[in-house]
Structure formats: structure tokens, C-alpha cells
Amino acid sequence: MATLRDLEKEIENIKQRNKRVELEKSWETSWTRKITIFTLTYIVIVIFFYYTGLPNPLLNSIVPAVAFVLSTLSIPIFKKMWLKRLYRKQAKLPFPHIKNKHKR
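and the corresponding C-alpha cells:
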């Protein structure tokens, strides 16, 4: 049986994990991340276009870089739709929070 001290330690661990998750989520939705993705994508495409001999690599790399960033920005929309559908399915189950590992 868990002691009070064990339970307190477990709660503290959960709180620390939640803080880490919140920080990671704030990075995922930050403009810093979006600008970094655009910049790194643009640089890679410029280098590729330059070495393959395509004309105006600095100018022509803008469109693919913007397209890639736009595709990453649309992902949260699809994630919300997917989660909404998943929650609807789980709500139809009698006890969605209980996962039956041992079906009989």
C-alpha cells in the first residue's frame, strides 16, 4: 500500500511532467517555431536549387518553403477534426476511460 509520502511524490512528478508538456506544446504552437521551419526549409531548398542549376534559386525557393510552412500550419486543423471524431467514438462506448485488455 502506498504511503502518503509516496503519493505526494507521485503527485509532484505528475505536476512536473505537466509543466514539461505545457512548455513543449507552447513551442509547437509558437511563431518562433514556424519562422524557424520556414527559414531552414528555405535554406535547404536554395542549396538544392543552386546545386541542380535551377535559375534564381533565392527567388524560386520562396514558393516551396511557404507551401511547406502552410502545410504544417494546417495540421492542427486536421488534428482537431480527428480528435473530435475519436472522442465521439469513445463517447459511444459504455466506459470510454476503461480499456479492456482482457476480453473474454
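(Above: one complete record from the training split.) The chain has one domain: 14-92.
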